[in-house]
Amino acid sequence: MQIFSCPFCGERPEVEFHFGGDLGNLRPEGFQSVSAETWSQYLYFRNNPKGVAREFWLHLPCGELFALERDTVTMQAAPGRALSHEADK
Protein backbone atom coordinates (compact mmCIF):
# COMPACT_ATOMS: atom_id res chain seq x y z
CA MET A 1 0.00 0.00 0.00
CA GLN A 2 1.23 3.46 -0.87
CA ILE A 3 1.48 6.16 1.80
CA PHE A 4 0.62 9.78 0.96
CA SER A 5 1.29 12.73 3.23
CA CYS A 6 -1.65 15.11 3.76
CA PRO A 7 -0.33 18.58 4.72
CA PHE A 8 -3.08 18.79 7.33
CA CYS A 9 -3.12 15.26 8.84
CA GLY A 10 0.28 13.73 8.05
CA GLU A 11 1.04 10.34 6.56
CA ARG A 12 -1.95 8.17 5.71
CA PRO A 13 -2.67 5.09 3.54
CA GLU A 14 -3.66 5.72 -0.08
CA VAL A 15 -7.21 4.40 0.48
CA GLU A 16 -8.00 7.66 2.35
CA PHE A 17 -7.37 9.79 -0.77
CA HIS A 18 -9.22 10.56 -3.99
CA PHE A 19 -7.44 11.73 -7.16
CA GLY A 20 -8.61 15.19 -8.23
CA GLY A 21 -6.73 15.69 -11.49
CA ASP A 22 -3.69 17.32 -13.01
CA LEU A 23 -2.62 20.67 -11.60
CA GLY A 24 -2.99 23.24 -14.34
CA ASN A 25 -5.95 21.58 -16.10
CA LEU A 26 -8.14 24.68 -15.88
CA ARG A 27 -11.87 24.47 -16.50
CA PRO A 28 -12.94 26.36 -19.64
CA GLU A 29 -14.85 29.59 -18.98
CA GLY A 30 -18.03 30.73 -20.70
CA PHE A 31 -20.39 27.75 -20.41
CA GLN A 32 -22.38 28.11 -23.68
CA SER A 33 -19.54 29.56 -25.76
CA VAL A 34 -17.20 26.61 -25.10
CA SER A 35 -16.96 24.19 -28.02
CA ALA A 36 -17.60 20.48 -27.65
CA GLU A 37 -13.97 19.84 -28.59
CA THR A 38 -12.71 22.12 -25.80
CA TRP A 39 -14.98 20.41 -23.23
CA SER A 40 -13.86 16.96 -24.32
CA GLN A 41 -10.19 18.01 -24.07
CA TYR A 42 -10.82 19.26 -20.52
CA LEU A 43 -12.85 16.24 -19.39
CA TYR A 44 -11.18 13.27 -21.06
CA PHE A 45 -7.64 14.04 -22.19
CA ARG A 46 -5.11 13.82 -19.37
CA ASN A 47 -1.38 14.13 -19.09
CA ASN A 48 0.27 10.79 -18.53
CA PRO A 49 3.89 11.72 -17.96
CA LYS A 50 6.64 9.22 -17.31
CA GLY A 51 8.27 10.68 -14.23
CA VAL A 52 7.11 13.51 -11.99
CA ALA A 53 3.42 14.45 -12.21
CA ARG A 54 1.89 17.44 -10.39
CA GLU A 55 -1.62 16.56 -9.23
CA PHE A 56 -4.25 17.56 -6.74
CA TRP A 57 -5.77 15.11 -4.30
CA LEU A 58 -8.59 15.11 -1.77
CA HIS A 59 -8.00 13.65 1.69
CA LEU A 60 -11.42 12.14 2.40
CA PRO A 61 -11.34 12.15 6.25
CA CYS A 62 -10.47 15.86 6.58
CA GLY A 63 -12.02 17.03 3.29
CA GLU A 64 -9.00 19.12 2.25
CA LEU A 65 -7.62 19.43 -1.27
CA PHE A 66 -3.87 19.62 -1.68
CA ALA A 67 -1.14 19.47 -4.32
CA LEU A 68 1.10 16.43 -4.62
CA GLU A 69 4.13 15.63 -6.75
CA ARG A 70 4.28 11.93 -7.54
CA ASP A 71 6.73 9.98 -9.68
CA THR A 72 4.69 7.74 -11.98
CA VAL A 73 7.61 5.35 -12.48
CA THR A 74 8.82 4.80 -8.91
CA MET A 75 5.49 5.72 -7.23
CA GLN A 76 7.42 7.90 -4.76
CA ALA A 77 5.30 10.82 -3.54
CA ALA A 78 6.62 14.06 -2.07
CA PRO A 79 4.80 15.47 0.97
CA GLY A 80 1.56 17.20 0.00
CA ARG A 81 1.34 21.01 -0.10
CA ALA A 82 -1.69 23.11 0.77
CA LEU A 83 -3.13 24.62 -2.42
CA SER A 84 -2.85 28.14 -1.01
CA HIS A 85 0.94 27.70 -1.18
CA GLU A 86 0.87 26.68 -4.85
CA ALA A 87 0.29 30.29 -5.92
CA ASP A 88 3.63 31.16 -4.34
CA LYS A 89 5.49 28.66 -6.53
Mean pLDDT: 89
How many DSSP H or I helices?
A: 2
CATH architecture: 2-Layer Sandwich
Beta-strand content: 35-45%
Superfamily (CATH H level) name: Folate-binding superfamily
Q: CATH class, anyone?
A: Alpha Beta
Could you say which overall geometry the principal axes of the C-alpha atoms support? globular
Rg estimate, integer Å: 15 Å
The strand order across the widest sheet is 3-4-5-6
Count of distinct structural domains:
1
Unreliable parts: none
- CA distance, first residue to last residue: 30 Å
Any overview of this molecule?
- GO terms for molecular function: sarcosine oxidase activity.
- One of its GO terms (biological process) is tetrahydrofolate metabolic process.
- This is Sarcosine oxidase subunit delta.
- This protein has 89 residues and is an alpha+beta fold.
- The chain has one domain (3-22, 35-86): 2-Layer Sandwich (Folate-binding fold).
- The protein is built from two helices and six strands; from the N terminus they run E-E-E-H-E-E-E-H.
- It has helices at residues 36-44, 83-86, and strands spanning 3-6, 10-13, 17-22, 52-59, 64-71, 81-82.
- The strands form two sheets. Strands 3-4-5-6 form a four-stranded antiparallel sheet.
- Strand 1 (3-6) and strand 2 form a beta hairpin.
- It is globular.
- The model has no long low-confidence stretch (mean pLDDT 89).
